[in-house]
From TrEMBL:
Species this protein is from: Streptomyces phaeochromogenes
UniProt entry keywords in alphabetical sequence: Signal
Residue ranges constituting the Glucose/Sorbosone dehydrogenase domain according to the UniProt record: 86-385
Record field: compositional bias (Low complexity): 49-72
Signal sequence extent: 1-32
One Pfam family per UniProt: GSDH
Transmembrane segments: none
The protein, known as: PQQ-dependent sugar dehydrogenase
Region (Disordered): 36-75
Length: 401
């Protein structure tokens, strides 16, 4: 059984808890005694579809009615361990030709994992990565034109800022030399020891969405001229995307530290966000909206702030990656050491969340759709805050309902 770890002012507190296969949770949970203010643990071209004001929104994808009204109770089955022995893994990008690209935050490398055999092949190092604290090589995303350009996008911390680069991936070259020289797409995102954000994803509109952090400079989150504490929306070339609400890269603001981005079958954008000492959040993102930080953490009575659709005490979640499958958002918890299911209902934006795999695999960093009812789930025990055991870190294949 994995131990449960929090850090308060440099003191590590370990609490042993019995592992449960499933934990049903109400939307509001009691605030835990572990303070989370020490870091992330704290806790297409702008077309608009009828009835939607969101840039890039498109008509709902057709699919089974189960995806529109998910079952009240879900399930998670761990099919297998895909691979083991990863070092500080962070980003995960499935390749259309097969294989999974994994970034190592602290090593500054990208590795290809054969999802059938588990074999790992290092593509190469990303020049300019300066890992420290929660910074380093983080999110990965494939170009929307990957089939023709074979470009891989990466978000990383440099000596001066957080930035996004793209690199040519050439599998025909020798291992260790398969990444081309990085082309900087966007730079100048504030950096810090903590709260560097780091998740990137291309949306249904083929625009690049970026989750950033406020680097402990809380006023950046409300400053619409800063790219810290925001969700950004960019063209693949790094320009402000057409239709952005402020004629800038900023898509939404008032965020503390965004590390999860995913779209549902209706093309609605959701994002997970670390709270400080009280509430972590899952938000439905609308262009131009203010999500409250640092004036609000979790639900607020002030109508100028967009409230989260769900919130958790910081020791139950500390969420990083999210994915959409089977009518639900699936959210990986670091300090919480569990996988949350948040059903999305038609008339109600969210039903009561459920927790799975509590403590079974330790800290969970990234979850990605593997198609249909399957997910890839990646652990995060070797990032300096976990308690690594034999085989850490791992990628798991899951079946979910």
């Amino acid at each position: 059984m994995k131990s449960r770890t929090c850090r308060v002012e440099g003191i590590q507190i370990v609490q042993r808890r019995a592992v449960t296969a499933m934990l049903a949770a109400a939307t509001l949970l009691v605030t835990a005694g572990c303070s989370s203010g020490d870091g992330e643990e704290s806790g297409g071209g702008g077309s608009t579809s009828p009835g939607s004001s969101e840039p890039g929104a498109s008509a709902p994808a057709s699919g089974p009615s189960a995806e529109e009204t998910p079952p009240a109770k879900g399930s998670v089955k761990v099919v297998r361990t895909v691979t083991e022995g990863l070092k500080s893994p962070w980003g995960l990008a499935p390749l259309p030709e097969g294989g999974l690209l994994v970034s190592s935050r602290d090593e500054g490398t990208i590795t290809r994992v054969d999802e059938k055999t588990g074999k790992k092949t290092e593509l190469g190092s990303v020049p300019g990565v300066a890992p420290a604290g929660e910074g380093g090589l983080m999110g990965l995303a494939l170009s929307p034109s990957y089939a023709s350009d074979h470009m891989v996008y990466a978000y990383f911390t440099s000596d001066s800022d957080n930035r996004i680069v793209r690199m040519l991936y050439d599998a025909k070259k020798p291992a260790g030399d398969q990444l081309g020289a990085p082309d900087t797409v966007f730079r100048g995102i504030p950096k810090g020891t903590n709260h560097n954000g780091g998740r990137i994803a291309f949306g249904p509109d083929k625009m690049l969405y970026v989750g950033t952090g406020e680097t402990y400079v809380t006023e950046l989150a409300q400053d619409k001229k800063s790219t810290g504490g925001k969700i950004l929306r960019l063209t693949p070339e790094g320009e402000p995307a057409p239709g952005n609400p402020f004629n800038s890269p900023v898509y939404s603001y008032g965020h503390r530290n965004v590390q999860g981005l995913a779209w549902d079958s209706k093309q609605r954008l959701f994002a997970s966000e670390f709270g400080q000492d009280t509430w972590d959040e899952l938000n439905h993102i609308k262009p131009g909206d203010n999500y409250g930080w640092p004036e609000a953490e979790g639900q607020s009575d002030d109508s100028k702030y967009h409230n989260p659709i769900d919130q958790w005490s910081t020791d139950e979640a500390s969420p990083s990656g999210i994915a959409y499958a089977e009518g639900s958002i699936w959210m990986a918890g670091l300090r919480g050491k569990r996988l949350w299911r948040i059903p999305l209902n038609g008339t109600k934006e969210s039903a009561d969340p459920e927790a799975f795999l509590e403590g079974d695999y330790g800290r969970l960093r990234t979850v990605v759709s593997a198609g249909g009812n399957k997910l890839w789930l990646m652990t995060s025990e070797t990032d300096g805050r976990g308690t690594p055991e034999s085989g850490d870190d791992k990628i798991l294949e899951l079946e979910v309902t």
